[in-house]
């Protein structure tokens, strides 16, 4: 499987008809000026000069609502990307937009320019949360847009935010379950941060809005991630990429920001799996050899080694990294035990009445 490289083109706030309470794209992207066609070409060329030919390459338009741009501007930007694709220099074209900025005419234009992937900034499927966040679109807009995108055979990504105004654990869980019903190709999850010069900041200052704590956010998203994993829907990002701007020293006023938030959440997922395994499985000796894929090592060991420490309270552990196994193998000298992660995820979800109720 090829490695994946995205060439990001940020179009801060262009094409976006609403000022959502949480949004200041210029602060988030670190860009204060509108982008030009020549700048897009320069960005692409700069990236291509450093990328191996063996990786899968995408041009991705992020930041604003791409399909809300003036049609001439859309065509100008997409024509650049299409030319690179036709020349074989990139493999795919991706863009992000709003659910209410997708219709049949827009889709036909995207097909003309050979766009592959459309990400929808849904944020929530709770109508009160959408209203409180001034999203300007409805739940029905989301379903209609998804239907058009899937009917026309685009890859579909859905983005959600956790901790918006009026949000709760259960409201975000509702959004997760509805996402699963929509069967996207992938999902992104963003904890809500309070960015400077947003309406959300004024609500926070007036004590009308209180962000989720980091601890609650981690616990909530752990459950959401396990649910997506159980239904085989990839979560390709959790949290904004920490940058000079996305920090408490710069433009983040408050909220559950942590540079390793995904690693911590993945660690918690494995922690729950290990906890259930230790209840169910008794090994014949105290010495265990655990063989696992290198990609799973940090999550299995846990953030700051927390999962491994729990295992070592009961067993002497030797870990072998390899790329030759898919499932985690645990050998006690007499028996080889394959850790069925999906089975234990189901047990956890049923135990907590997230499914099976």
Give a description of the structure.
A 7-stranded parallel sheet has the order 1-2-3-4-5-6-8. A 4-stranded mixed sheet has the order 11-10-12-13, covered by helices on one side. The protein has 2 domains: 4-259, TIM Barrel, CATH 3.20.20; 270-351, Glutaredoxin (3-Layer(aba) Sandwich), CATH 3.40.30. It has helices at 25-29, 37-48, 71-86, 104-112, 127-132, 139-151, 169-182, 199-205, 214-230, 261-280, 297-301, 306-312, 341-351; strands spanning 4-10, 56-62, 92-97, 117-123, 155-162, 186-191, 194-195, 235-238, 252-254, 287-293, 316-322, 328-331, 336-339. The longest helix has 20 residues, at 261-280. Helix 3 (71-86) links the parallel strand 2 and strand 3 (92-97). The chain has 357 residues and is an alpha/beta fold.
Could you give the topology of this structure?
Blueprint: E1 4-10, H1 25-29, H2 37-48, E2 56-62, H3 71-86, E3 92-97, H4 104-112, E4 117-123, H5 127-132, H6 139-151, E5 155-162, H7 169-182, E6 186-191, E7 194-195, H8 199-205, H9 214-230, E8 235-238, E9 252-254, H10 261-280, E10 287-293, H11 297-301, H12 306-312, E11 316-322, E12 328-331, E13 336-339, H13 341-351
Parallel strand pairs: 1-2, 2-3, 3-4, 4-5, 5-6, 6-8, 10-11
Antiparallel strand pairs: 7-9, 10-12, 12-13
Helix pairs in contact: 7-9, 9-10, 9-13, 10-13
Mind telling me which CATH architecture of the largest domain this is? Alpha-Beta Barrel
Radius of gyration: 22 Å
Shape: globular
**Number of folding domains?**
2
Name of the CATH homologous superfamily of the largest domain: Aldolase class I
Share of helical residues: 25-40%
Order of strands, widest sheet = 1-2-3-4-5-6-8
Low-confidence stretches: 26-33
How many β-strands, per DSSP?
Answer: 13
């Amino acid at each position: 499987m090829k490695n994946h490289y995205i060439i990001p083109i940020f179009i801060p706030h262009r094409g976006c008809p609403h000022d959502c309470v949480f949004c200041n794209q210029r602060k988030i992207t670190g860009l204060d000026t509108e982008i030009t066609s020549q700048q897009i070409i320069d960005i692409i060329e700069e990236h291509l000069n450093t990328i191996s030919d063996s990786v899968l390459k995408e041009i991705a338009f992020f930041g604003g609502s791409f399909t809300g741009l003036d049609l001439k501007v859309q065509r100008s930007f997409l024509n650049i990307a299409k030319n690179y694709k036709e020349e074989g220099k990139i493999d795919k074209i991706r863009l992000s937009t709003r659910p209410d900025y997708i219709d049949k005419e827009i889709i036909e234009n995207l097909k003309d320019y050979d766009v592959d992937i459309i990400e929808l900034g849904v944020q929530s499927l709770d109508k009160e949360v959408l209203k409180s966040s001034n999203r300007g679109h409805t739940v029905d807009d989301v379903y209609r847009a998804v239907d058009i995108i899937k009917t026309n055979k685009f890859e579909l990504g859905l983005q959600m935010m956790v901790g918006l105004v009026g949000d709760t654990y259960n409201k975000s869980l509702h959004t997760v379950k509805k996402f699963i019903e929509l069967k996207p190709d992938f999902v992104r999850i963003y904890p809500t941060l309070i960015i400077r010069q947003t309406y959300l900041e004024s609500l926070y200052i007036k004590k009308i809005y209180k962000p989720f704590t980091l601890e609650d956010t981690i616990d909530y998203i752990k459950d959401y991630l396990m649910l997506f994993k159980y239904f085989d829907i990839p979560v390709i990002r959790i949290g904004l990429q920490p940058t000079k701007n996305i920090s408490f020293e710069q433009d983040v006023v408050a909220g559950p920001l942590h540079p390793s938030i995904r690693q911590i959440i993945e660690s918690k997922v494995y922690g729950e799996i290990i906890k259930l395994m230790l209840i169910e499985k008794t090994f014949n000796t105290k010495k265990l050899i655990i063989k696992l894929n290198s990609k799973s090592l940090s999550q299995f060991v846990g953030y700051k080694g927390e999962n491994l420490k729990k295992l070592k309270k009961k067993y002497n552990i030797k870990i072998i990294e390899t790329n030759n196994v898919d499932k985690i193998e645990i050998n006690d000298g007499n028996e080889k035990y394959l850790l069925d992660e999906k089975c234990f995820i189901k047990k956890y979800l049923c135990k907590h009445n997230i499914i099976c109720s």
